[in-house]
């Protein structure tokens, strides 16, 4: 049998029912590549024969599954075990081989982190991980952008390489995100953007710091692990919690949103197209029909944007622009846009 169990967010939070499972097991593995920097003294006291499970052992899984066919095997991890995709994949493979699987959930560091920052869980958007390679910044940047457009918060996990004993620190990650803003220019990581940095959550050395990117620049967050939350549209109760529960460098804004690229395009091009129409000389009746079609496309773009049809909005404003430019060219005028 295979037991996949969660130990909670710290070494002193292991539940009694999991202690019982561990003590009765034939083999106990502790996976630490998803939960670094945790004191393992309690679980070692419970199980002196504890074996550390590196990433390759869990991802490969064959040894654990083979042992589980004839022995009682525990795969333990801090937090909730099924937050890690490797554990879910191992559970599926065990079920496919007819191996009984017992899952015992534990408190997750992710949900704990959100609560410790004073944020509402239902306002959290998609998560992403920031890696040390510059070429891998596009995904966390665009995930943050899409969440921000919806007004949602973004949890950004920072790279941990168990083999190299490497943690990406928050100050480095924040600087790299600020640098990425110069390339992508969508207004996500500007100096006034509000963030929360959570450090060593669940330990006695826990620290949560909040503020604008500029106010957090150069801050010493101490030893990792660190995580970053880019806040979206904050409820007033979240603002109150941030002021009270975090080391607040400057006050959190209640209405921090980002306009989507389609919205920015419609707002930019609509007045420009109207101005181009006004600059046209006297038009024939057929040309007036073309102008009316262009105005209809502008209206279609605005309706599509309001209904969430971003692609239709961009196409419609493009059609309007093209029609008006064609009229200008036919009158010997340069295209306006």
Structure, described:
It is a single chain. This protein has 337 residues and is an alpha/beta fold. The chain has three domains: 2-107, Tetrapyrrole methylase, N-terminal domain (Cobalt-precorrin-4 Transmethylase, domain 1), CATH 3.40.1010.10; 111-248, Methyltransferase, Cobalt-precorrin-4 Transmethylase, Domain 2; 261-330, Substrate Binding Domain Of Dnak, Chain:A, Domain 2, CATH 1.20.1270.90. Helices cover 45% and strands 16% of the residues. It has a six-stranded mixed β-sheet with strand order 6-7-12-10-11-13, sandwiched between helices. Helix 7 links the parallel strand 6 and strand 7 (154-158). Helix 11 runs antiparallel to helix 12, helix 11 packs parallel to helix 13 (310-330) and helix 12 runs antiparallel to helix 13 (310-330). The longest helix is centred in the last third of the chain and has 22 residues, at 285-306. It is elongated, with a radius of gyration of 27 Å.
Features:
elongated; 16% strand; 3 domains; 13 helices; Cobalt-precorrin-4 Transmethylase, domain 1; six-stranded mixed sheet; alpha/beta; Substrate Binding Domain Of Dnak, Chain:A, Domain 2; Methyltransferase, Cobalt-precorrin-4 Transmethylase, Domain 2; five-stranded parallel sheet; 337 residues
């Amino acid at each position: 049998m295979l037991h996949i169990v969660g130990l909670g967010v710290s070494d002193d939070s292991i539940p009694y029912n999991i202690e019982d499972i561990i003590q009765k097991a034939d083999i106990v593995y502790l996976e630490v590549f998803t939960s670094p920097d945790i004191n393992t003294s309690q679980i070692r006291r419970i199980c002196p024969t504890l074996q550390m499970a590196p990433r390759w052992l869990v991802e490969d899984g064959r040894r654990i599954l083979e042992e589980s066919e004839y022995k009682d095997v525990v795969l333990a991890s801090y937090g909730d075990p099924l937050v890690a995709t490797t554990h879910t994949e191992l559970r599926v493979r065990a079920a496919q081989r007819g191996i009984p699987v017992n899952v015992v959930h534990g408190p997750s560091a992710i949900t704990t982190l959100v609560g410790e920052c004073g944020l509402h869980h239902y306002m959290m958007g998609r998560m992403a991980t920031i890696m040390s390679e510059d070429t891998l910044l596009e995904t966390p940047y665009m995930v943050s952008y899409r969440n921000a457009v919806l007004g949602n918060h973004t949890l950004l996990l920072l790279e941990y390489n168990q083999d190299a004993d490497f943690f990406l620190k928050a100050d480095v990650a924040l600087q790299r995100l600020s640098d990425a803003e110069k390339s992508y220019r969508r207004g996500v990581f500007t100096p006034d953007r509000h963030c929360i940095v959570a450090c060593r959550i669940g330990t006695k050395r826990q620290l949560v710091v909040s503020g604008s990117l500029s106010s957090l620049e150069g801050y010493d967050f101490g030893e990792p692990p660190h995580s970053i939350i880019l806040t979206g549209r904050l409820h007033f109760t979240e603002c109150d919690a941030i002021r009270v529960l975090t080391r607040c460098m400057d006050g959190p804004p209640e209405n921090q949103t980002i306009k989507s690229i389609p919205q920015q395009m419609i707002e930019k091009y609509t007045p420009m197209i109207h101005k181009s129409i006004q600059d046209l000389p006297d038009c024939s009746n057929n040309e007036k029909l073309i102008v009316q079609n262009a105005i209809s496309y502008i209206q279609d773009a605005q309706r599509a944007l309001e209904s969430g049809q971003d692609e239709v909005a961009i196409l419609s404003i493009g059609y309007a622009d093209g029609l008006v430019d064609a009229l200008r060219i036919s009158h010997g005028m340069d295209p306006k846009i």
